[in-house]
Design a protein that fits this description.
heterodimer; A: alpha+beta; 4-stranded mixed β-sheet; globular; B: 210 residues; 6-stranded mixed β-sheet; 19% strand
Chain lengths: 137, 210
């Protein structure tokens, strides 16, 4: 079973950078997939990777991370401008951040328009490939 | 703030490419950073810089080669210190190294060193002056590691050139990287086979002038 844990932005808003990272990482270490409303700041994202590396041990092998930024998925300049203006007022509340423990989330495929999570359960449940047909001579 | 002040004053005193700057090689594991560093060092110093390998996290420490002088077509010279960094990743599992044929003790040691290497790479973001983000152009460019690296360089006002490496491979797609990072210049090379390297060195002059 996979647990998705939604974190509204208001829950991390008042925390310091390192406080936010500790909170999100502790949830991921509880084997939960974290869905954070909004985004971390760029420096916080790098800090999250750094802290993850410090925490790696026998049980915890790291995280998979993906961020949806509406400004980057804008179809044209006007739409981008709209999101940038909204971003100016709303700060980092726009978008979505997904953090999953790598023991559960094997890969996150982050195309601009969609996010695909490949979990270890899904990987195990893969149907075995049928035997290859013999080549005709 | 310091970056912005530097950029402000630079416009008044900038008369050509910078000299003696730190040129960082950043990117995910196995994108060819050390292969590129070796190629640059071989071309201009006559010796290699480090060991490249097909197993990820071969480079686990920051390697610096000082005083590399390259010459442009017009006879201009560019002097820089090359900083080869360990690949940045969000997960490291020693079992992956065992799958590549490594004994358990060696794999665990490599994983420990690799985590430290990632931390060092991130710390060094504050010390490099200009960066080549080396991406494997056969891989999906939309990984969050790539976005985080480039976003952090942009936040620090560090000039960036995206180097799309491994263009010699069949699956290579320069366009994918261009569409993932449309606001950046993407330059395709094959560090392994030296493809496009002359034009790449000319690009370094442009990058140093930014």
């Amino acid at each position: 079973m996979v647990t998705l844990h939604f974190v509204p932005y208001t829950e991390i808003e008042s925390l310091s950078g390192i406080g936010r990272i500790r909170k999100l990482l502790s949830l991921a270490k509880e084997n939960k997939i974290v869905l954070l409303q909004g985004r971390l700041r760029q420096e916080e994202e790098a800090e999250l990777i750094k802290t993850t590396m410090e925490e790696i041990n026998k049980e915890f092998k790291g995280i998979e991370l993906a961020v949806i930024n509406p400004s980057q998925t804008a179809k044209d300049g006007l739409q981008k401008l709209k999101y940038d203006v909204l971003g100016y007022f709303l700060g980092d509340t726009q978008g979505l951040t997904i953090i999953g423990p790598s023991s559960i989330v094997k890969k996150i495929k982050n195309d601009p328009d969609k996010i695909e999570l490949l979990t270890s359960e899904a990987q195990q449940a893969k149907v075995p490939r049928p035997k290859a047909l013999k080549k005709r001579k | 703030m310091i970056g912005r002040l530097k950029a402000f004053f630079k416009q008044f005193w900038d008369f050509g490419p910078r000299q003696n700057f730190k040129l960082g090689l950043y990117g995910p594991p196995n994108s060819g950073k050390t292969t590129l560093a070796n190629k640059i060092c071989l071309d201009w110093l006559g010796e290699e810089m480090g060991t490249a390998s097909a197993i990820p996290h071969e480079t686990r420490e920051i390697n610096i080669k000082e005083q590399i002088t390259i010459k442009g077509k017009t006879g201009k010279e560019l002097v820089f210190n090359l900083v080869d960094t360990p690949g940045i990743a969000t997960k490291i599992d020693y079992e992956d190294f065992m799958k590549a044929g490594m004994p358990a003790s060696k794999a665990k040691k490599r994983a420990r060193e690799a985590t430290k290497g990632v931390i060092e790479s991130i710390k060094w973001l504050d010390q490099v002056d200009t960066v080549l983000v080396v991406l494997d152009c056969t891989e999906d460019p939309y990984s969050q590691v790539n976005v985080t690296i480039i976003g952090n360089l942009a936040a620090r006002n560090i000039p960036v050139l995206i180097v799309a490496n491994k263009i010699d491979l069949k699956k290579a797609s320069l366009r994918k990287i261009q569409s993932a990072f449309p606001q950046y210049e993407v330059f395709g090379i094959s560090a392994k086979y030296g493809k496009n390297m002359e034009a790449f060195y000319e690009k370094l002059f442009e990058l140093a002038a930014k």
